[in-house]
Amino acid sequence: MTDEQHDERIAALDRRLAEVRERVRRACAAAGRPERDVTLLLASKAQPLPVVRAAVEASARTPGPVLLGENRVQELVAKAPALLDLGPAWHFIGPLQSNKVNAALPWVSCVESLASLELAHRLAARVPDRSAPLDVMVQVNVSGEPTKSGVAPDDALALARDVAAIDGLRLVGLMTVGARSDDEAVVASGYDRLRSLRDEVLASGAPGTASAVGLSMGMSGDLELAIAHGATVVRIGSAVFGGR
Ligand SMILES: *Cc1c(COP(=O)(O)O)cnc(C)c1O
């Protein structure tokens, strides 16, 4: 890459990041929610390290914190150590295989894609310090699409309560990948479902559930809709990094 190409790429990242910030700001205003309610997570899958580095640097020039998200352990362990100097927090947002837990854990501050009690116990067993629990979210498949990960909505409350009770984990909310549909009402009803499940988890009063306030939902195409329905984390890939 020439210097010029590099500068262009940085300028484009700055521009797209500012656009996404503006979309978040407007969506919060429209929903009557404070902007600080919503955290931007940059989904860096398939993006090369220099681009991710540039995006984190660009994000530091905008107000508000930014999280990074990875779907694959292989990419996480390649990128996270190389960005330690910038200190971003990483969320794991893809399917996590049991045999990859050890490799992933040192680098993540939150596993959003928790969908089984078995994985929860495996994670908890590897948390080095019980006084510093690992943040987790339970991933729910609100759309029921067979290609999507996550626990079925009917099983979400039980799993969330079980997870919340595990020493070494801190349940911080629920996550979903919205329905793949052009019909906004279909996507919105999935987000509503996630929010009411989150409310049920909180209302259960079960041990460890009081911290489960988060809702990670919404991506580049529908962050406004997700924010209108209560998202606290929006996971943005293409709108910041450009098309994949
Ligand atoms: C890729 C990905 C995103 C971001 O998707 P975009 O449509 O590119 O914004 C969000 N969440 C998960 C789980 C992803 O895999």
Automatic annotation (TrEMBL):
Extract the CDD domains matched here.
PLPDE_III_YBL036c_like
Name the SUPFAM superfamilies on file.
PLP-binding barrel
Its required cofactor(s), as named, are: pyridoxal 5'-phosphate
Which positions are tagged coiled coil?
Answer: 3-30
N6-(pyridoxal phosphate)lysine found at: 45
Which top-level group of life is the source organism from? Answer: Bacteria
Q: What does this protein do?
A: Pyridoxal 5'-phosphate (PLP)-binding protein, which is involved in PLP homeostasis.
Membership in a protein family = Belongs to the pyridoxal phosphate-binding protein YggS/PROSC family.
Note the PANTHER family from the entry.
PROLINE SYNTHETASE CO-TRANSCRIBED BACTERIAL HOMOLOG PROTEIN, PYRIDOXAL PHOSPHATE HOMEOSTASIS PROTEIN
The entry's protein name is Pyridoxal phosphate homeostasis protein
